[in-house]
C-alpha cells in the first residue's frame, strides 16, 4: 500500500491571500489549451488567427466555470440548492461538474461561432483536442485536494491503494489518477493524433465524446459514488456513468454521420 502524499492544498500563501493548487490546475489547463490552440492556428491555411484563439479560450474558460458550477448543482446536489439557493454562488466551497462544463463549452462554441461566422462543428473540432490535457490537470487537482477518492481496494491486489485522510482509514483506489491517465493523457493522445490529419467535419468532436464517455464510464467502477447519490440505475450505475452514456451514443452517431456524409461533401 502506498502512502498518500500529504500536499498542502494551499500552494502559495501571502498574508490573507491564499492560492490553492486546484486554482493553479485550472490556470495550467487554460494556459495549455491556449498554447495548443495557438500551435494549431499557426499552421498554413489553418483559418484561425491569434485573436480568434484568444477569444475562443476566454469564452471556453467562462463556459467551463459557469457550466461546471451550474452542472454540479443541477446534476449532483440540487437538494442543497433548494435548501440554500445562495450556495450556488459559494464556489469556494467546491463542486464542479465535467458534464456541466461540457454544456457550458458547447454554449460558448455556439456564441463564438455566431460572432465569427464559423460553422459550429469547425469550431468544435478545433476545440476537442485541446480539452483532455485540461481534464488531466483538473484530476491532478482533485488528487492533491484529497477529494473524489476511489472505492475501497484490497492492498494485496492493488498495492498502490492509498488511505485518503478526508475519507476514512480504508485503503482506496487513487481513482483521480486513473481518470487523469485515461480521460486526460490517453484521450489527448487519441484525439490529437486523430485530428492531425484531415477528417470529415464532426468526426473529431465525435471521437472526443465517444472516448471520454467510455473512459469515464470505466473509471467510475473504481471511483467512490457520490455520498448524496450513491448507486442508481440497475443498482450499479453511478451518476457519472448515467451522464456519460449519452456522450457515447452521441459520439457514435456523429462519427457514423460524419463519415457517411463525407463523400457527398467532397463531391
TrEMBL record:
Q: Does the keyword Magnesium apply?
A: no
* Bilayer disposition of the protein: Multi-pass membrane protein
The keyword Cytoplasm appears for this protein: no
The Enzyme Commission number assigned here is: 2.5.1.145
Residue intervals passing through the bilayer: 19-36, 56-76, 96-114, 126-145, 177-195, 202-223, 243-259
Residue positions binding a 1,2-diacyl-sn-glycero-3-phospho-(1'-sn-glycerol): 139
Tree of life domain: Bacteria
Under PROSITE patterns, the record lists: LGT (PS01311)
Task: Give the family this protein belongs to, as stated in its UniProt record.
Answer: Belongs to the Lgt family.
Function, as annotated = Catalyzes the transfer of the diacylglyceryl group from phosphatidylglycerol to the sulfhydryl group of the N-terminal cysteine of a prolipoprotein, the first step in the formation of mature lipoproteins.
Q: What is this protein called?
A: Phosphatidylglycerol--prolipoprotein diacylglyceryl transferase
Q: Which organism is it from?
A: Parathalassolituus penaei
Amino acid at each position: 500500500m502506498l502512502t498518500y502524499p500529504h500536499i498542502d492544498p494551499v500552494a502559495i500563501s501571502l498574508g490573507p491571500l491564499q492560492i490553492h493548487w486546484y486554482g493553479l490546475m485550472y490556470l495550467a489547463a487554460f494556459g495549455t489549451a491556449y498554447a495548443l490552440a495557438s500551435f494549431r492556428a499557426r499552421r498554413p491555411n489553418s483559418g484561425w488567427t491569434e485573436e480568434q484563439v484568444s477569444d475562443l479560450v476566454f469564452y471556453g474558460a467562462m463556459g467551463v466555470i459557469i457550466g461546471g458550477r451550474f452542472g454540479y448543482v443541477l446534476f449532483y446536489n440540487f437538494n442543497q440548492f433548494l435548501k440554500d439557493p445562495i450556495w450556488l454562488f459559494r464556489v469556494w466551497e467546491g463542486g464542479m461538474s465535467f458534464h456541466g462544463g461540457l454544456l457550458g463549452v458547447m454554449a460558448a462554441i455556439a456564441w463564438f461561432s455566431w460572432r465569427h461566422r464559423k460553422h459550429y462543428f469547425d469550431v468544435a473540432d478545433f476545440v476537442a483536442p485541446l480539452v483532455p490535457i485540461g481534464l488531466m490537470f483538473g484530476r491532478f487537482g482533485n488528487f492533491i485536494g484529497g477529494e473524489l477518492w476511489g472505492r475501497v481496494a484490497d492492498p494485496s491486489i492493488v498495492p498502490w491503494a492509498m488511505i485518503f485522510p478526508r475519507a476514512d482509514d480504508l485503503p482506496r483506489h487513487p481513482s483521480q489518477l486513473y481518470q487523469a491517465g485515461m480521460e486526460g493523457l490517453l484521450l489527448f493522445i487519441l484525439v490529437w493524433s486523430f485530428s492531425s490529419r484531415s477528417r470529415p467535419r464532426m468526426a473529431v468532436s465525435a471521437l472526443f465524446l465517444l472516448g471520454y464517455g467510455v473512459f469515464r464510464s470505466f473509471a467510475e467502477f473504481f471511483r467512490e459514488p457520490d455520498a448524496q447519490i450513491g448507486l442508481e440505475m440497475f443498482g450499479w450505475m453511478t451518476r457519472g456513468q448515467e451522464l456519460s452514456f449519452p456522450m457515447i451514443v452521441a459520439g457514435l452517431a456523429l462519427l457514423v454521420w460524419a463519415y457517411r456524409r463525407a463523400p457527398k461533401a467532397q463531391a
